[in-house]
Specification:
CATH architecture of the largest domain: Sandwich
Structural class: alpha+beta
Shape: flat
Number of strands: 7
Number of domains: 2
CATH class of the largest domain: Mainly Beta
């Protein structure tokens, strides 16, 4: 089986491609998006760096907002980081393993660094995003931007 190759650092123009700058910028953006997609979809788990696991999450949409519900049982809000960037939501943190006596015979719950990423549509109000943690479920609410509605304009004399 062939695995996808991750895009190397450095712009296409720096590596000797002789394309117009706007075309190179579009390809750079495409490569960056594909890298983020592969990491979030766990297509290339060995390429994700220090991230050990991704929590389970549901995304649903209402007329007013997008809602992301992410399972982070046993986590404190201080140990979770929520960032909204350009067209992307990133939830990350670290779940520390409990110290126990004796020998661990079976480990089924994930521990260590985690990261959940998802792409956002362009019509959101990133400055109004809220996050709440309740009974091990992190809920991130991402309000939609108001769409300009057509209205009749009266022509003045």
């Amino acid at each position: 089986m062939t695995l996808p190759i991750r895009h190397r650092p450095g712009s296409l123009l720096e590596r000797g491609f002789h394309w117009p700058e706007s075309m190179a910028a579009e390809f750079e953006d495409l490569f960056d998006r594909m890298n983020r997609f592969m990491e979030s979809a766990s297509i290339a788990p060995a390429m994700t760096g220090a991230t050990a696991w991704a929590p389970l999450a549901d995304i649903h949409e209402t007329d007013e907002a997008y809602h992301v519900e992410c399972d982070v049982p046993g986590m404190r809000r201080e140990d979770i980081d929520v960032e909204v960037g350009e067209h992307e939501l990133c939830i990350s943190g670290e779940l520390k393993a409990c110290e126990r006596e004796g020998v661990v015979r079976r480990r089924g719950r994930p521990t260590g660094r985690f990261e959940y990423r998802t792409l956002l549509p362009t019509d959101v109000r990133a400055e109004d995003v809220t996050a709440t943690l309740n009974e091990g479920v992190l809920t991130v609410t991402i309000p939609k931007a108001q769409v300009a509605k057509p209205r009749h304009i009266e022509i003045q004399g």
